């Protein structure tokens, strides 16, 4: 849990596989505050940065498997919108062992 100096509960979240920040939009509408965001795709980072001017404070571009836990600030919630292309009925159905969806294992 993350608490302020007066011990009030703070709703903060880390957004993995952030994409263009859709999870952030929803959570901020509900009163949550972003503490960290990550994605591997430079194009998604550019789009995210265009939507959120403060992204330079918390966005880490790179592979989730290479993140150092010490670089991720404490948060009360972690979200992960990992790629589901290998899970889709329209895809190859390789499951969590597939090239894209296996990124899930870097999150857990």
Note down, in words, how this protein is organized.
The chain is α/β, with parallel strands linked by helices. The protein has a domain at 12-82: 3-Layer(aba) Sandwich (Rossmann fold), CATH 3.40.50.150. The chain contains three helices and four strands. A four-stranded parallel sheet has the order 3-2-1-4. It is globular and about 45 Å long. The model has no long low-confidence stretch (mean pLDDT 81).
Question: Quick gist of this model?
Answer:
This protein is of the alpha/beta class. Helices cover 20% and strands 18% of the residues.
Q: Could you list the spans in which at least 5 consecutive residues all have pLDDT below 50? A: none
Order of H and E elements: EHEHEEH
The amount of helix comes to 10-25%
The termini sit apart by 18 Å
What class, by secondary structure content? alpha/beta
Number of beta strands: 4
* CATH class category label of the domain at 12-82: Alpha Beta
Based on the structure, what is the oligomeric state of the protein chains?
Answer: single chain
**Cα-atom radius of gyration:** 15 Å
The spatial strand order of the largest sheet comes to 3-2-1-4
- The overall average pLDDT, rounded, is 81
Portion of residues in beta strands equals 15-25%
Largest sheet: 4 strands, parallel
The CATH architecture of the domain at 12-82 can be given as 3-Layer(aba) Sandwich
CATH superfamily of the domain at 12-82: Vaccinia Virus protein VP39
**Might you state the CATH topology name of the domain at 12-82?**
Rossmann fold
The number of helical runs is: 3
Shape: globular
